[in-house]
Amino acid sequence: MTITHDTALAITGWGGSHVRQAVILAGGQASRLRPYTDHVPKALVEVAGRPIFEHQAHWLAAEGIEEVVISCGYRADVLREYVAANRLPLRVRVVVEDEPLGRGGGLKYAAAHLPFPGERWAGLNGDILTRFSLRDLARAHVERDALATLAVTPLKSPYGIVEMTHSDRVTSFTEAPVLPHWINAGVYLFEPEVTALLPDLGDHEDTTFPELAREGRLSAYRINGYWRGVDNAKDLKTATKEITAFGWVQAVVAQ
After folding, report:
1. Where are the alpha helices (DSSP H) in 90-217?
2. Model-level pTM?
3. Are 70 and 79 in contact (CB under 8 A)?
4. In contact, 120 and 17? CB cutoff 8 Å
5. Exposed e or buried b per residue across 222-247, where buried means at least 16 C-beta atoms within 10 angstroms of its C-beta
6. Which of 190, 231, 203 is nearest to 52 (CA)?
7. How many of the other CB atoms lie within 10 Å of CB of 82?
8. Mind listing the pLDDT tens digit for each residue in 43-88?
9. Within 13 Å and on the Cβ side, how many CA atoms surround 231?
10. Contact at 8 Å (CB) between 209 and 148?
11. Cα 224-227-228 angle, rounded to 5 deg
């Protein structure tokens, strides 16, 4: 019996909703996180005693990801040394952008180095910390027959809200409430053919995503779990408190 590629995928389970490869974007200089990024890339800035990338690697591995390609630029040498010197729960390849390609260009460049070019792949920004079911996202992606799915998270106001009556009498204050809007969480799932649709240079949110949305092939997945973007020193402090409170540092050490 001759086993075709599609048959092999069905037998091994890779033809379903399983995802085993991912791209992480870590090319920016992260100037808003200085001085933490004076000597290391943002992906290696420590949160609760562990680099952001290490938190991501353990989450991805727990969700079935086996291979990761990191697209980087600034302080790529430091990231390569870290990957070579540390035991990680998945296989990691570091690729370097010779010049800044933008988020869409960075995704496309790194995707060209993925080990399984015929399979779907996850992508995520190198400055986020999250814990949710990537497997559930993949199942929803397949059920909706999407070419691309982006994870979304509720928008939290950076400011306190003043509640007032119609006559401008102040009734209460709400500190940083969750607003009735959703934002891109920086986690994606792509079918292999999306790679060719990504821009060589620029942002996929300006080009690829609007086109897929017009075609009805772009889906959203509402995160039911933890998410925190680490963009500045305040975010870093908040994320450290949250992760320490959740006990995730101890869980990573024990693995």
Report:
1. 102-111, 134-143, 208-214
2. 0.85
3. yes
4. no
5. ebeebbbbbeeeebbeebbeebeeee
6. 231
7. 20
8. 998 999 899 999 999 999 999 999 999 998 888 889 999 999 999 9
9. 5
10. yes
11. 165
